[in-house]
Amino acid sequence: MPISVLPSGAALGAEIDVDLSQSIDDAMFREIVDAFHDNIVVVFRNQHLSNAQHVAFSRRFGELEIHIVKKYLLSDYPEILLVTNIRNDAGENIGLADAGFTWHSDVSYRKHPSRCSLLYAIEVPEMDGTTLGSTLFANTIRAYEALPRSMKTWLTGRKAIHRYSERMRVANSPRPKLTAAQLAETPDIAHPIVRTHPFTGRRSLYVTKGECIGIEGVPDDEGRAVIEALHDHCIKDAFLYRHTWRVGDLLMWDNAAAMHLAICDYDLPQRRLMHRTTVIGSVPF
Ligand SMILES: [Fe+2]
Predict the structure, then answer these.
(1) Alpha carbon of 18 to ligand 1 centroid (Å)
(2) Ligand 1 centre from 151 Cα, in Å?
(3) What is the model's pLDDT at position 166?
(4) pTM for this one?
């Protein structure tokens, strides 16, 4: 029986009705992958996953990344990064409290950026019956397709320079400062602004205001202005999906076809706790 896929009705996003704690044969997995590529963001609701199950399902999409901020990894499962605003008794964050407060595509600062990320919701903040801490996703394939032809032509062959430390510029970021060794491990990297999806061949915009500092061979001011304009274009309502989290959601997104933004509209004692795995992708082309 085919799996049930319910599109969100927005520019991207769908719910897939599969219990990921059960065994998934290759035929069903292929259906999941097809639905994922079609919808870019997919959510499996009401999951009850062990860390091992979360890791095992993620691994079927490729090798998993061990995040650069080691202290936020689960000791038994270093493939799992804690994304949370929870603090320990000493008042220290126990996970990445900055869930990505600028628009970005995960790990774009690497030569091999992420194919996809899988976020499992364990605690979701709420106030007066309203769910907080939603995540916005933008469909960068549709955004590319909607560009004027002249802009598509201008962008052809151009590369944007991605810098990990750019995110440190967000005012009051709770993200730990990178050490000299971590900075040395993440040099600036140039990726095509128009990238071709490695599985579907579709073209998308791969440029984010949060992490791109300029365009190769273009004067700084002009490069920044183009990045800004592309950013504003990508986040038009017509290209967005807003995910309202529920405990038990396992949500995955395609980093080659979307960028995302975490909405930080909550604070302790409202707790948000997510487990993230990140699948390593191929070199963008
Ligand atoms: Fe992210």
Answers:
(1) 24
(2) 27
(3) 54
(4) 0.93
CA of 253 from ligand 1 middle (Å) equals 10
Q: Distance between CA atoms of 90 and 78, rounded to whole angstroms?
A: 23
Q: What mean pLDDT do residues 113-125 have?
A: 97
What spacing in Å lies between the alpha carbon of 74 and ligand 1's midpoint?
Answer: 18
- Cα–Cα distance between 153 and 133 in angstroms, integer? 38
**Is 46 contained in some domain?**
yes
CA of 105 to the centre of ligand 1 (A): 6
Confirm whether 44 is domain-assigned.
Answer: yes
Full domain range(s) for residue 189: 5-170+181-280
170: pLDDT strictly greater than 90: no
Domains held by the chain: number = 1
Residue 73 lies in a domain: yes
133 C-alpha to ligand 1 centroid (Å)? 13
The CATH number of whichever domain residue 156 belongs to comes to: 3.60.130.10
pLDDT attached to residue 1: 77
Share the mean pLDDT of the chain: 93
Residue 98: the pLDDT is: 77
- Nearby residues for ligand 1 (ion, Cβ within 5 Å): 100, 106
**Å from CA of 113 to ligand 1 middle:** 12
Task: Place 181 in a pLDDT band, splitting at 50, 70 and 90.
Answer: confident
> Does residue 187 lie in a domain region?
yes
